Structures are given as structure tokens and as C-alpha cells.
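Board notes, transcribed. Complex of a protein with magnesium ion.
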Amino acid sequence: EAKNKGRNSYRFFTKNDNAEAHKRLTLQNALRYALEREELFLCYQPLLETNTKNIMGVEALIRWQHPSFGMISPAEFIPLAEESGLIIPIGEWVLETACRQSHHWQQQGFTPLLMSVNLSVRQFNQPDLIDRIIKVLQRTDLSPNWLKLEITESLAMNCATKTVQTLKILKSLGIHLAIDDFGTGYSSLSYLKQFNLDILKIDRSFVADISTENDITLVTSIIKMAHGLNMQVVAEGVETEQQFDLLRANGCDYVQGFYFYKPLVEKDITKLLAQQESGQLINVSSASFF
Ligand code: C2E
Ligand code: MG
Ligand code: MG
Ligand code: MG
């Protein structure tokens, strides 16, 4: 039934819808225990300032290492966690782990990093979201100024009035806010203006195609619009020098992608930070990644 295709991927045979449904059920059941069995962990992918190539922050990205299925991609299990409601405890665990880690790096003496955490729709819509976030910040002793929450366009479009209100409170606490995967959803530009976000992340599908004339126009327009709305821009999925050069030439503020670093485990980020502080950072890392 199942087949393990090596370290980074896990695929069931998907001959028909039955197999598809079975796969979902199996994963959903396994996910129930993933947290308590400590099968989940976080990787951190650096975000670099375009001009200096300094690491200014990291994005926390969840990983699930199942004992027999192997590594399962968040693209596969986050939607399942959303459906079942498991995203609530899992999301809270991510937030707390990431905040604690960020505070820990600060305690080790590194220049503070902006810690980005992805928030799912269901998490965002919890009535006590603000309270939970404040409590996590208190427990982990992290200043809200070092936390950035990434929300998606679909979330943003759900219930505009409530969303605007929640975002306002988060912002008043000093938390940074980003819209993730920009360009893939159904953002209304008027909402974008109301949301008053700090950062816009251009989806990697636009970055991937940036070599064609039309896509350069698209990306540069997004950057200009974001700046016009007082947002800074992160390009995600930067994989080549050419992409980086084009983004830099067009005023993109930050970059994130395999060209620089893949998502790394804690100890590799610690090494990177130590190298950066001592001015010995080599730009493309051979450290272990997931
Ligand atoms: P995302 O938030 O847009 O995260 C960026 C994704 O792009 C990550 O995939 C990252 O590994 C990948 N990426 C970064 N640079 C490159 C590149 O140069 N090339 C390519 N091909 N990919 C690149 P990942 O870690 O598999 O996560 C996928 C998605 O799963 C995330 O997209 C996010 O939506 C979701 N996710 C991950 N962790 C969490 C979490 O803790 N909570 C929630 N709610 N969602 C999460
Ligand atoms: Mg993200
Ligand atoms: Mg993204
Ligand atoms: Mg994405």
C-alpha cells in the first residue's frame, strides 16, 4: 500500500480515489499522535537583506518525520491538520517552539532575528487568538517585535471586518505581519490597503518565471505597489543568481530561497549565525537541510 521513496518524500500509490481517501485517513490518524510522539520538528529558512545579503530573519517551517512513512511534506499534512482541527494544537506548538528558539538565539548573544511563523486560516479564526499569542510570547519571553506572522490571501478574504480588527490588534502589540504567497489567491487590492500589513511575500511561482519579459513586468509592478502601500517585499523561492540580480535591480527588499539557503535545522542556523557574526559567512551552505 505504501512506498517510501527515500528521505525527503513519501508517496502512496494513487491508482484511484479509494487509494487517495485511504491515504488521507492513514495520515490523519498518524497525525493525531505526531505531536505527543515528538515526530514534528521545525526547520528555519534564512531571509536575507537584498543589498547586504545579511540574514535578518528566519521562517519556521514544520517537518514531520514519521517512523515508518518517512518525511512528510507540510504541503501534504497541513491541509489535513486544517480539516481535522489538529492545526490548533500543532500551530500553537509551532508558535511556541519558534518563539522559544528565537529567544534562545538572542540569549546566546546573536543579533536578534525576525522569526516568521505561518498562521493557518483556522488558527487565525480562533476567537481567543490574540490571547493565545500574548501568552506564548510571555511564556517564551520573546518581544513581539521579533515575531512576524505570515497569513495567506484566502484567509485575508474570508471575513474582512473581523480580519481587519484582528490584524490591527496584532500590529498594535508590535508583531509584524506579512501576506504570504502573494499573487496566488484572490486578494482584492482594497483589502490589501485596509490590512495595513508590513511585508508582502511574492509567491515563488512568479519568481521562478522571472526570466520572461511579462513576468519581470509583473514582479516589478508588485514591488512598486507594495512600496506604494508602505510594505516591504520578500521574494520567496529564489533559486538562481539571475533571479536574485533581477529582484535586486528592481528594489526587492528581502530574498529567501534555495540559491542562498534551504530550510535548516537549529544547529546549522546556530553555526550560520556564528559565522555571520564573525564575518566568515560563506554564502551557499552545504549544511544539512530538509
Ligand atoms: P510557505 O509558507 O510559502 O513557505 C515557503 C515554502 O517554499 C517552504 O516549503 C520552503 O521550503 C519552500 N522554498 C523556499 N525556498 C525555495 C526555493 O528556492 N525553491 C523551492 N522550490 N522551494 C522553496 P515547505 O517547508 O515545504 O512548506 C510548504 C508550505 O507549508 C508553506 O509555504 C506553508 O504554507 C506551509 N507550512 C509550513 N510550515 C507551516 C507551519 O508551521 N504552519 C502552517 N500553518 N503552515 C506551514
Ligand atoms: Mg510562509
Ligand atoms: Mg510563502
Ligand atoms: Mg509558498
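Confidence is low (pLDDT under 50) at residues 1-9, 284-288. The radius of gyration is 19 Å.
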